[in-house]
Design brief:
The chain has 184 residues and is an alpha/beta fold. It has helices at residues 18-36, 83-99, 115-124, 138-143, 172-183, and strands spanning 72-78, 104-110, 130-133, 150-154, 160-165. The protein has a five-stranded mixed sheet, with helices on one face.
């Protein structure tokens, strides 16, 4: 008798194809990531809790500071090559000036691989709010950020108050209304 594996009567063996092996491998990886908690989240929706972000901003504080005067933190994910980001920075500067006294903290998380690219952007459009660098884009992967910019307003208890994808000049009034609604 040969060493070949025999299937029980009535059961045909499934063909081992590259596509089947890839599907099984993907399923195994997904199960492993889900079991370890490393599976990416979707962009946080309202009332979900933002996971811990292990980055420090330019003001020396963690991106989501657990203590401090902020009543809400507007976290914006951006990159130097992002055209809408060039429109959003002047608006965020304006919101920082208008609403920081009411408890709004703005942190822009840069996802460029090279910090020099981010610095060139910031020389052209300076930020008057905190900036954090995430060249490995770990945070973007964790949150499964779909587009840039993607922004989230987060309460001190890390509950996401809202998520906004993209940025158009027409968005400004609605975004400011939502920021004010969270602060007052």
């Amino acid at each position: 008798m040969s060493d070949a594996r025999r299937e029980p009567p009535g059961r045909a063996s499934a063909p081992t194809t590259p596509a089947r092996r890839q599907a099984c491998g993907s399923l195994a990886i997904t199960a492993a990531l889900a079991a370890t908690g490393l599976w990416p989240l979707h962009p946080a929706a309202a009332d979900e809790r933002m996971p811990e972000i292990r980055l420090r901003a330019s003001d020396g504080q963690p991106v989501l500071a657990e203590a401090g005067p902020a009543r809400a933190t507007y976290v914006d994910f951006w990159a130097s090559w992002c055209a809408p980001c060039k429109l959003s920075f002047p608006w965020m500067n304006e919101m920082h000036e208008r609403l920081s006294g009411a408890g709004l903290r703005i942190v822009a998380v840069n996802l460029d691989r090279r910090e020099a690219d981010a610095q060139r952007f910031l020389q052209q459009i300076p930020a008057r709010f905190a900036v954090a660098m995430d060249p490995a884009a770990d945070t973007a992967r964790l949150l499964d950020i779909p587009t840039m910019p993607t922004s989230m307003l987060v309460a001190p208890d890390r509950r996401v108050l809202f998520t906004h994808r993209g940025f158009r000049l027409d968005d400004r009034a609605d975004l400011e209304r939502r920021l004010r609604g969270a602060l007052y």
